[in-house]
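Q: What does the assembly look like in three dimensions?
Context provided by user:
Components: three
Sequences:
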Amino acid sequence: MKTFLTATILSLAATGAFAAGHCAAGKTLTDGTLTIATGNPAYYPWVLNDAPEAGEGFEAAVAYALAEEMGFAADAVTWVRTSFDEAIQPGAKNFDLNMQQYSITAERDKVVDFSAPYYTAPQAVMTTTPVVEGGATATMESLKGLKWGVVASTTALPVVMEQIQPSQSPLVYDDNANITAAMKAGQIDAALFDLPTALFTAAVLMDNGVVLGQFDPAAAENPDQFGMLMPEGSALKACVDEALAAMTENGTLAAIEAQWLQEATGVPLIK
Amino acid sequence: MPDPRLSLRGVTKSFGEVQVLRGIDMDIAAGEMVCLIGASGSGKSTLLRCMNGLEPVDDGAVLLDGVDIAEPGFDLGPIRQRIGIVFQSFNLFPHMTAYENVALAPRRVLGEDARARIEALFARFGLADHMAKYPDQLSGGQQQRVAVIRALAMRPQTMLLDEITSALDPELVGEVLDVLRQLRDDGMTMVLATHEMAFAREVADRVVFMDQGVVAEEGVPERIFSSPEQARTRQFLASVLR
Amino acid sequence: MTRRAAYEARQKRRANMIAGVSTAVVLALVVLLVPLAPGWEAVRSSFFNGEVFVRVFPDLLRAFVLDVAIFAWSVPLIFALGLAIALARGNTNPALFPLRIFGAVYVDLFRGIPVVLLVYLVGFGIPGLGLPRPWNSPYIWGTVALVLTYSAYVAEVLRSGIESIHASQRNAAICLGLSERDTMRYVILPQAIRRVVPANMNMLVALQKDVALLSFIGPVEILRQAGIFKSLLANFTPYVAAAVIFLCITVPATRYADYLMNRDRDARS
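A: Here is the predicted structure of the complete assembly.
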């Protein structure tokens, strides 16, 4: 068993060395190592148990698959943690790639580089059973009447303001935990998240959470697509995009999505 | 002597280890003007403060019209309207005009808008033009006269005056002493701690020399100043009249 | 002009000239050297982007109205409660001893907890007990958090003011027959409050900045609005714009407090 493991690691390392030499060589922060950033904490279902090293959860699994595709062995992947602000502030970065559900937008693209999208996220409405019992339904008409909460650094705010156009101005929070607290306190009726986050928050963080419905990503003008964030002008971008294309081509990405984001099906579309 | 207005019986008072009053007996008749003289620290100020209960006495009795106001727990509120006190440092309220300083207590304690009476007091003591001024716009002598008016506005039967000219420049002392002469002519009962020996000799009915917390000698001013019996009285007078 | 006056005028001219030259040199060094830093271009476009500044400024100013409103309704509550606590701490009536203990605990507790923690605890915690709308509003409970903290500070400032009034003032009032209550109300408090105006002005400047902490529990005031723009535009200029708006209020207020403090010191010396 031990010999087998050693052999596997050796062979991985060998291929890694070869492939890294092929494209990413000399383009990472530390030669031979791929440094990937995630959030602090990193949330389910993107990373399980806040432990990206385990490779469990959608983004953690994508990270290791991508590393392999780019020719890095699993133990050549190093994780760091950053906030949104650290990722976009000027100056040297401490990561090669930053994965924490960054939506690709034209404005952000001026400051940093994004990879090709690795996930297209439907926006979903999370609310509570009392609100549903109060008559809220998955229609635009009904959603307008709700008190909304959103996370400041996501693209949910423009969606709420432009598509839902609620009658009361929304409240804005720093992160999902505060949204959950405000919803428990009855200060907001509904929150807009990407669907996987909505499902997790409703099921795990709330006692009476409900995912009321999702927006059809195909119908959206600018569907919310997650990209890996890289420093502006990153030399690595071409390699990453190439690897992502290969993973889409050979079905790896779809398989990971099916494994970690399976609950995302079966939520009604908002009309 | 008829029943005295104010009587002290065996009054003692200590601050910590220091015994300031060591058994004072004294009677003050209605309408009498008594001057307390003695060196600084002899207990004159403390004695005055014990007379209106501002300092609680340790032992002994302070009888005001026969009522012992030194009884521990005695409600001094009503008594204080009957005994006015004026301090060396004026203690006017700096955020109020002279008039407001005077009018506050009649309004809050007596429930009286004493405007006419207060204006008359200001006029009588030559301050009619200064009623709207703040204390820091008045001279020391003027401030001290306002302080006297403030005490008088409560219609006290007795006035306690604690070295009220000691903080004044020499040229301002006279105007304040004039006020006291007028009060004396009104028949006001007054107890006055003072260093103004000439004034005490001129106006006092009786002079009390205090030394180290006791009444060392008392009598009519003429006798105390011209032929004191006690050696320490002679010594004190010699030092201040030099 | 006397010899002395001429000398002093010369000295003053000399001092002004030295001050002017040294200021000019420092400014020139900053203006010339900072842009030479290798990262200056990136910092400039990220923090001092004119285009972004112009775009976000009107919205930030609108959001700042909410800060001013929260400030405006908090201040009377802070002073009323601060005064009540200061008086509770100062009372000597044995029957009211519990009130005195309460005042002391209140001050220790709310001065000891960082405002932002209190904003979270009160802002989410109390409505979480199940209050109905509109009584669970983050505006109400966020304000409560600010009032709790700042009234504790104001109470201490007022108490120090009360204690700074000389005992002779109290004696004079008591000897006129005024009750303890009237003595406090008419004699001690008016002087004490006047004396602590500068300290309270500084407190108000701090409060105006801390109002922004309410954004953590939902209200979209200027700091949050700037954060939204930052996230939308991936640019920090909105924060700089917000800082400029804050400075327009806080610098004059601080200067005014200093002026009052100096005037007070001159008056007393």
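Follow-up: Chains A and B do not touch (no CB pair under 8 Å).
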